[in-house]
Amino acid sequence: MADGQNGENGNAGEAMRDAANRARDGFAEHVMDPARRAGEAMRASGQKVADGSATIGLKIIEQAEQNSHQAFEAMREAAKAKDLTDVMRIQGEFLRQQGERSMTQAREIGELIMQFGRDAVSPLRPAGGTKPD
C-alpha cells in the first residue's frame, strides 16, 4: 500500500511541477514580455525626444545667429545714412523683414516640434497600428 501512495504522490508532485512551469511560462508571456517591450519602447521614445531637443536647440541658435547678423547689417546701413529719413526707412525695412523672419522661424520650430512629437510616440504605438488622421 505504501508503494501505491508513493506513486500517487509522485504523480501529484509531477503534476504540481507542470502546473508551476505553465504558470511561470504564462506569467513570462503575458506580463514580463509586454513589460520588457514597453520598457524598450519608452527608451526608444526617450532617445528620440533627446535627439529632437538637440536639433531644436541647434536650430534656435542658428536662427539667433541669423537674426544678429541681420541686425548688425541694418545698424551698419543706418550708420551710413545721410539723414534721419534714411535711418527711419532702414529701421522700418529691418523691422518688416525681422517680422517676416520671426514668423518663418516660428513656423520652422513648430514643424520640428510636431515632427519630433510624432517620432517620439511612434515607438509607443502598437505594431501595425495606424496613426490618427
Structural commentary:
The chain is an all-alpha fold and 133 residues long. The protein is built from 2 helices and no strands. It has helices at residues 2-79, 84-121. The longest helix has 78 residues, at 2-79. The radius of gyration is 33 Å and the shape is rod-shaped. The N and C termini lie far apart (73 Å). The mean pLDDT is 84.
How would the blueprint of this fold be written?
Blueprint: H1 2-79, H2 84-121
Task: Quickly list its features.
single chain, about 130 residues, mainly alpha, 2 helices
In this structure, how is the largest beta sheet organized? Answer: none
What is Rg? 33 Å
Q: Which residues sit in consecutive blocks of at least 5 with pLDDT less than 50?
A: none
- The proportion of strand residues reads under 5%
SSE topology string: HH
The number of strands is: 0
Please tally the helical runs, counting DSSP H or I stretches of 4 or more residues: 2
Short description:
This protein has helices at 2-79, 84-121. The chain is an all-alpha fold.
